[in-house]
Amino acid sequence: MATIHTLLRNANAVNFTAKFTDVTKVTKVKDETEESETDAAKANTPSMTDLPAELILDIVELMDSAADVGKMRLINKRFCTIVHEVFLKALVDDRVVYPRYECFSDFLSLLGDSYSMGVHVRTVTLVSEGLGAPEYGYSWAWEDLENREGELEYTEEDVDIINKANRAHAMALGDTDAFLNRGLYRTNLALLLSRCPNLQTIKVRPLKAGEHVPGWEGPELLKEVSFYKKDLNTNGIYYGDWKYDTVHRRVTVWVDEYGEEMVEDNAGPQASFRDDLVSAIQSSGTLAETVDVE
Q1: Given 103, 145, 248, 293, which residue has the most CB atoms within 10 angstroms?
Q2: Which of 136, 131, 133, 150 is nearest to 219 (CA)?
């Protein structure tokens, strides 16, 4: 027979269990309620993806590159739709076009045969200097650079690197000769301008100090010389305006190593960058304004 002590103890245990169960239920309900309220609050809190389209466009307009705008397109489908037109504009507007066939080919491929991309081009920047042979040879040109930069201490390794860069330049000259000296620059420029119906400004500028025409290995080689700096101005060594015979489609007038102008018999009218630009503008029918910039 159970004692009164045992009965009381069992009764207390039952009451405690019941109370604990009730407290647990209340706590669980409270936690679930708070969690639901938190989820509801989160659902009602605006996120970046909920930004108004106007604000999103204001943000992407401040971005510096097409790559940055392209990343915004990856956020979600809504963002992709909103920034699509801005992305197209970032790809094609105010591109720098160097006098190399590859630069024109890439740009023309991007524009395509229709105006769907070309309509976004309001400005194009043309670099007026291409690959060119130094008038009095590489040695004199490097000496001139030394005079302008102050005394440079060449190491044997520097001399080897410079010779490699000079050879690479000579090979690149052969590759670009047909493009610059046979009228192909003029033809490609006219085609490019004709595919930009909303073009407003043609900016023209020379190469900046330390800037290089892309597409040849010399610029990377020159980074290895001991006196290299970002604004090392080798423009007078490797670049310049071009001049060719518009009748014979080749170089018929040049300056020899002694500074004397040499002219072939029956040489025809000569053309340079400016002549090619004027001809391309007339052929394309563009009404864009030409502006010289530094």
Answers
A1: 103
A2: 131
Q: pLDDT of 174-213, one tens digit each? A: 999 999 999 999 999 999 999 999 999 999 999 999 999 9
Phi then psi for residue 75, to 5 deg, are -65, -55
Cα 228 from Cα 161, distance rounded (Å): 12
Counting every residue written for the chain, the total comes to 294
- Give the start-to-end residue ranges of the domains of the chain: 46-92, 93-292
Which residues lie closer than 8 Å to 98 by C-beta, 6 or more apart? 127, 130, 213, 214, 215
Amino acid (one-letter) located at 110: L
Closest CA to 288 of 164, 224, 197, 178: 197
Q: Output the six-digit token pair for 146.
A: 């030394």
Report whether 227 contacts 151 (CB < 8 A): no
pLDDT band at 49 (very low <50, low <70, confident <90, very high): low
Q: Is 76 within 8 Å of 106 (Cβ atoms)?
A: no
Contact of 127 with 99, CB cutoff 8 Å: yes
User: DSSP letters along 218-263, please?
Assistant: HHHHHTTSTT--TT---HHHHEE---EETTTTB--EEE-TTS-EEE
| pLDDT of 82 above 70 | no
Where is average pLDDT lowest: 70-79, 215-224, 230-239?
Answer: 70-79
Structure tokens at 251: 């170089």
Q: Give 185's contacts (C-beta < 8 A, 6+ positions apart).
A: 99, 104, 130, 179, 242, 273, 276
What is d(CA 206, CA 129) in angstroms, rounded to the nearest whole number? 6
* pLDDT tens for each residue of 113-142: 777 889 989 999 999 999 999 988 899 999
Structure tokens that stand for 11 in this block = 């009764």
> What pLDDT is recorded for position 267?
93
Q: For residues 273-278, give the mean pLDDT.
A: 98
